[in-house]
Write a sequence for this structure.
């Protein structure tokens, strides 16, 4: 077996372990995925279509998942103030509490235990692999605002910046959140 094939099998096994960990708090793995995404998405990226794109799921799966999360009191849907046809998704305080006990945090603690060089190498390799697969599938890259070509930093210390694409002022917190419009 080649090293690449072996690595692919390791990734598959790890993903299965991660998936199995996600049956906590009465939630399904896909529900955790949605909560995690909404927790790190900026205000322009908290829509059903952005969730669909980021998680590479069908619209039907996302719709059912969002309905289930809303019924559990974890996600709040609200009509967009500027376009009533658009829906914005927010996490409830109950969801934020559940995310403090996210099963993925246990996996993260094992990653923290890796030697620094191994952790950085793993991160770089996984990023490269993910970027290649997204390009191959013509998916959206997503990324944090401050690494986007449309981001213009604030002039003064403590200012968030400006999105040239959307024509919007960004908070400092926005700069570290995922954006559906990200362009390298």
């Amino acid at each position: 077996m080649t090293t690449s094939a072996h690595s692919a099998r390791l990734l598959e096994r790890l993903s299965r372990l991660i998936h199995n960990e996600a049956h906590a708090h009465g939630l399904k793995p896909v529900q955790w995925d949605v909560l995690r995404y909404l927790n790190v998405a900026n205000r322009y990226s908290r829509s059903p279509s952005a969730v669909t794109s980021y998680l590479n799921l069908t619209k039907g799966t996302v719709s059912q998942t969002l309905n289930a999360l809303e019924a559990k009191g974890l996600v709040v849907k609200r009509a967009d103030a500027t376009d009533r046809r658009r829906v914005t998704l927010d996490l409830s305080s109950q969801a934020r509490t559940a995310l403090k006990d996210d099963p993925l945090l246990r996996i993260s603690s094992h990653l923290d235990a890796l030697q620094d060089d191994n952790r950085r190498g793993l991160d770089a390799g996984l990023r490269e692999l993910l970027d290649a697969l997204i390009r191959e599938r013509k998916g959206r890259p997503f990324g944090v605002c401050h690494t986007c070509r449309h981001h213009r930093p604030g002039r003064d210390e403590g200012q968030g910046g400006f999105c040239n694409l959307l024509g919007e002022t960004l908070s400092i917190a926005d700069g570290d959140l995922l954006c559906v419009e990200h362009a390298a």
About this structure: The mean pLDDT is 90. DSSP finds seven helices and seven strands in the chain. The longest strand covers residues 75-79.
